[in-house]
Fold this protein.
Amino acid sequence: MPSRQAGPIGRVRRAKRAGRARRAGRVDRLAPFVLVAPAVLVVVLLRLWPLVLGINFSFTGDGELNGTAVGLDNYLALLDDPLFRTSLRNVGLLVLLLPIAVAIPGLLATFIHLKVPGHRVYRGVYFFPAVLSPVIVGAIFTLLLSFDGPLNAALGGLGLPPVDWLGDPDVAIFAVVGVHVWATFGMALVVFLAGFSTLDPSLLDAAKVDGASFVQTLRHVIVPGLTRTIQFVFVTTMIGMLTSMFGLLYVMTGGGPEGSTYLPEYYIWMQQGRFDRPALASAASTALFVAMLVVGLAQVAVLRRTGKED
Amino acid sequence: MKQRALWSVVLAAAVLVAGCGSASKSSSGGGDGKLVVWDWKSGDGDVAGYVEKAKADFAAKHPGVEVEFVAQPFDQYYTLLGAAIQAGKGPDVILFNGGGQLRDRADALLPLDEHVAADRSRLAGWDAFTKDGKTYAAPVTLQGHPLYFNKALYNKAGLDPNAPAKTWTEFVEDCRVITEKTGARCFAQGNKEGIGIQFFLSAMGSAVLTPQEYDSWIAGKRNWSSPDVKRVFELWKEAGDSGLNNDGANSTAMFNDAFAVFQSAKAAHVIGLVSDVGHWKDFGEFIDPADLGVMPAPVVNPAATPSLPYDGGIGYGVAKWTKDPKRAADLVRSLTSADALKAFHTGAGAIASDPGIDVSSAGPAATAIVSAIKTGKPALHVALPVKTVDLMGRLSQQLLSGSTTVDDVVAQLAASDTTG
């Protein structure tokens, strides 16, 4: 072997090998950084850097003040704008309506799991709206809910006065949220059904033997057994409500009537696209980002806690 | 192995960088031999003849200069344009809606006055493309708000369709008779997006405001506390409260549900448009063109003189970053040449900005509109800032639902108009 050779030739070979080893060591040290570089670059260049630019942009002015720093003016303008306040109030309303949006797929999944007659059909039918685009759903319900539409005709048949579902500012937001829940609960239903498959059937049998009513079974067996699933559905439904109602709003109400169905997303779009105020839109985006960050952190906390329970 | 991994990383990075580089190239400003036009029209088949005529006219003046039309989706148009303006580069020639959409972006455009001087008397509708005395675009179509009526319903109700009401009182009485005899409402009204009030303000404005008030409104000196201005919003509220409108106006979209109400003879009148949609051509497909009438706004204030409210509808402007302003302005002139505009009128069913174009084949309603252009005035709502128009939409919905008062509406609009 070369290392045993004495003399100048051996020394040169040793030196060469040491050089190779050093180079190999350097490559070994650098390789991980090089290998993660594309991912890091994509995240930094395409996500974080635009985010920083956007936040920075939200501290500049619009129109004639384009490019000049205006401090917190945009944020003060947001707080002063009744439309933005309405959009935040509507976010609060969505949070309040969240338990209903979770309870509906939960209850329906329970019925399917308890094998009510026709449960196979219901499983498919309930999921069906989840594959429709919000634009199609919105267009269909705009027709159904229009003042001279079929729903009001049915009410009239029952001797009830018509309701201006999308034209009454006190009703419209509930109509849109209702349609959103109808269109998206199929996904939550599937998650619930998956949760049910982890539920120990012997517990349900035991409850049945003990003569528990449906409500008692639900309260003492099903809900405690599905805690983690319910938490997961809560978080995902909340995020869905905050980020994917734009299409429905755009088609069904356009933010109206009287601006009563504005959500932050819609507000941002209006400021940027209609009023040509990109910096104000950036400020609103930053505000929405902070709200989403809070929801996201809450999600992480919830998932971590449920992870510990395993 | 390591070397191969390194190479693939380098390759991936190179692809990434190349991708970033090329993304911005498409459809931005033209170089030496090319002009880029942004619009939302050129993709439609019915304006192909117009584009062809305009291109031919331009090619005769500037042979060898390529013109690329980039049709953007209208929903995203001003968002995309906003991004281009923010970046300081983009198309050379830009299609605009007249009024606020253009004025809000005038600082990104070149004044065209010296280039289009020769077209000034031939074309109408310049005001909508003018800000602070400078012209930023040349009109292609006119957009206006005539009061259309269904002559068949008038006949059915025993009214003379050739002598429609001259005053508001007579008009309301005629409407009562029509509803009684035919079941049709007076107005097809769609205010879901707040558009109903814009049309109503402009169509009824000249019948309520005195000519002086009207002219100062357009000139930007709006007296929101004037009783006549207040009267327009009172009329709006009265029309809603007394059942002149179809039911559920606040949840009826003007485009196209309200127009559908008129076309299906469920309402006798509608304040429509003159170009693009909701106009004589659309209505003529459902109502016999001979039964489609256009009447002047019924007079509310004896001191007022009703006139057709119209403005430049769409028009082409030149971006200030274009390399050769003269050449881009020549393209704008080609896009508004008489031949091209004639093709636009017949293809897309628009009232073109050149009133000299023969429209007799389009029916009596179109002829009545064109003949009213000479005495017409700019529409009141088009003169308002976009922000105020949006607020007016929401407030008008509150007026219909009864959750606010006319005084409060006028006060809020006055505040919005001054801070705009």
